[in-house]
Structures are given as structure tokens and as C-alpha cells.
TrEMBL record:
Pfam families (alphabetical): Porphobil_deam, Porphobil_deamC
Organism whose genome encodes this protein: Actinomadura napierensis
Domain of life: Bacteria
Annotated cofactor note: Binds 1 dipyrromethane group covalently.
UniProt cross-references to InterPro entries, sorted A to Z: HemC, Porphobilin_deaminase_cofac_BS, Porphobilin_deaminase_N, Porphobilinogen_deaminase_C, Porphobilinogen_deaminase_C_sf
Protein EC: 2.5.1.61
Family statement drawn from the similarity comment of this UniProt entry: Belongs to the HMBS family.
Gene3D superfamilies: Periplasmic binding protein-like II, Porphobilinogen deaminase, C-terminal domain
Keywords carried by this UniProt record: Porphyrin biosynthesis, Transferase
Protein name, as recorded: Porphobilinogen deaminase
Residues modified as S-(dipyrrolylmethanemethyl)cysteine: 246
Lineage start: Bacteria, Bacillati, Actinomycetota, Actinomycetes, Streptosporangiales
């Protein structure tokens, strides 16, 4: 294999063992095999976040999905790893020696509200007052609270199919909210309503992690999508500047506008969405990190720190 990475000419790709994570990893593996003369073996790694059935805050947040994979990568048990970027914490540094060598071209960032397959409700406006909506994301909870404060937003975890199963059972939830990108990657097609809410930082992006001194870095860079990297650099810089914990209702989305400039919207909420701050700025595309820092600074001046501090960690 070029560069001599892997064992016996095989590049080992580490990932979580959930159905969605495995599908995503196989997609990355297939693309690498198309672009280079390399064989990729997908290695499933069960993480603490997958084993734990309670609230992720009890394990310190979404970083619980990454620790075992990071350790396997640093120890050389795998050569590269794939993460959903929205699950990568912004308030703690990445382990020394690891680098995101590629951000795969971004997929749809929409949050979609789904309804029981056997029911008659087909949109948010049709939900009765007090309807039960399942989601694990405080960002979604806060924005739904702004749109429909009458709804009962209840905590829901699990893989996509188990969440859909609980929805269709009709006993716990009147609706749930999922990422459209995950549904598409799993090949799941069912009616739903795309919500007019700001996505999570890194939504729709797969990040490919490597040891910084590995020969695999140059290979993985074949997957890197420049426009996505520029957008991500702005979003992640904003998230880092806000230093929100895993339970912070922070939303942010960068995109390249028709005039070629990079724009970034950021919002921070209270848990129920009753208060929020908003900022939007533009910059040349090469200045994503500066743009993110500028938006974070504006949000902080408008009171984001008090809003973040009002949400339990």
C-alpha cells in the first residue's frame, strides 16, 4: 500500500458499532479504495457512549463516543477513524498527535420531524398542544421551545431504527426529530417535515482522523473537501470560542454565498429557548477561523456566557 501504513497492506478504519456509524465508515472506505490503490478494513469499536443507556451528560457528553476510538488510533490498533463532526466536543482539545486529515463533502444539514407511520399527523402545526416530541439534542429542544412552547420535549437516545420503532409503537412519542443526513445514509425514506431551525456545528460532516505522523495522512487528504473544510473551520472556531459544554444549546452554520464570501450564523439559547442571542458575519473564504472567533466574540458580548451557564452540565 502507498506510504506503508496499515498491516499487510490493509488500512484499518476504526468506527463506532452502531448501524449508522458502520454505514458511514463503509462509505468512506469505499471512496478511499476508489481514489487510491489501498484495501480498507472497517474495525468496529464499541464506545462508552454506546454502552451507556442513560443521559450522555453522566459520561461527560458526546466525547464518550470518541475516547476508545482515540485510544485505538493512538495505540496503532487502527490507522484512521471516522467521526460525525457534530459529536466532536468544542470545549476540550483533541488528543495530541491526532489530526483531522479530511472533512468529507457535507451532506444535508436539515433536522427532520417524523411522525408515527400509522398516524394522521404529518407536520409540526398539526401536533396537539402538549404533544410529546423525542430528541436528545438541547439545541433542538431550545429551538422547538421557541416555535412551540406548548410541546413536551422528552429525552430520546438510541440508534435510528430503535428511535423509529419507539415512535411507531405510538405509546411514548407523538413525533421525534432526527438528522436527515443519517436517514439518507441509512437509506430510510419516510415522510417528515424539515424544521426551520439552525443546525448543530459540524452537521452533515464526516471527519476522518489520523495520527499526525502517519503515512495515512496524505492518503486520507484525497477525501478532503475544500469548501466543507472552510465552513467547518469557521463553525468550530465559533464553538471553541464559546467554550460551551456538551449540554449547551449552541447552533451554528457556515456556508459560501453566491458572492464567494463565507458567512456564519451562530445562536446560543437558554434550555427552553425563551432567551437567545444571535450573530451573523461574513468574511473572505480563507479567513474562516477569524470569522468564527469574531462571531463567538459578538455572541459573548451579547450575553452568551450567561445563557450557557444557565444550562446544567
Amino acid at each position: 500500500m502507498p506510504g506503508g501504513s496499515g498491516v499487510g497492506g490493509v488500512l484499518r478504519l476504526g468506527t463506532r458499532t452502531s448501524p449508522l456509524a458502520m454505514v458511514q465508515a463503509r462509505g468512506v472506505a469505499a471512496r478511499l479504495q476508489e481514489l487510491a490503490d489501498v484495501t480498507v478494513e472497517v474495525v468496529g469499536i464499541q464506545t462508552g457512549g454506546d454502552r451507556h443507556k442513560g443521559h450522555l451528560g453522566e459520561l461527560g457528553g458526546k466525547g464518550a463516543f470518541m475516547r476508545e476510538i482515540d485510544r485505538a488510533l493512538l495505540a496503532g490498533r487502527v490507522d484512521i477513524a471516522v467521526h460525525c463532526l457534530k459529536d466532536v466536543p468544542g470545549d476540550v482539545p483533541r488528543p495530541d498527535g491526532l489530526v483531522f486529515a479530511a472533512y468529507v463533502a457535507r451532506d444535508d444539514v436539515a433536522d427532520v420531524m417524523l411522525f408515527p407511520a400509522a398516524g394522521k399527523v404529518q407536520c409540526l402545526a398539526d401536533l396537539a398542544p402538549g404533544a410529546r416530541v423525542g430528541t436528545s439534542a438541547v439545541r433542538r429542544r431550545a429551538q422547538l421551545g421557541r416555535i412551540r412552547p406548548d410541546l413536551r420535549i422528552e429525552y430520546l437516545r438510541g440508534n435510528v431504527n430503535s428511535r423509529l420503532g419507539r415512535l411507531d409503537a405510538g405509546e411514548e412519542f407523538d413525533a421525534i426529530v432526527l438528522a436527515r443526513a443519517g436517514l439518507t445514509r441509512l437509506g430510510i425514506e419516510r415522510p417528515g417535515e424539515a424544521l426551520d431551525i439552525l443546525p448543530a456545528v459540524g452537521s452533515g460532516v464526516l471527519a476522518v482522523d489520523c495520527r499526525a505522523d502517519s503515512d495515512a495522512v496524505e492518503l486520507v487528504r484525497l477525501l478532503d473537501h475544500q469548501e466543507t473544510r472552510r465552513c467547518v473551520s469557521a463553525e468550530r472556531a465559533m464553538l471553541h470560542g464559546l467554550q460551551g459544554h456538551c449540554n449547551s444549546p449552541i447552533a451554528g452554520h457556515a456556508r459560501i454565498e453566491r458572492d464567494g464570501r463565507l458567512s456564519l450564523r451562530g445562536m446560543v439559547f437558554t434550555q427552553d429557548g425563551s432567551r437567545f442571542v444571535h450573530s451573523e458575519e461574513r468574511s473572505p473564504v480563507e479567513q474562516g477561523e477569524d470569522l468564527g472567533a469574531r462571531v463567538a466574540g459578538d455572541l459573548l458580548r451579547k450575553g452568551a456566557r450567561d445563557l450557557i451557564g444557565s444550562v446544567p452540565n
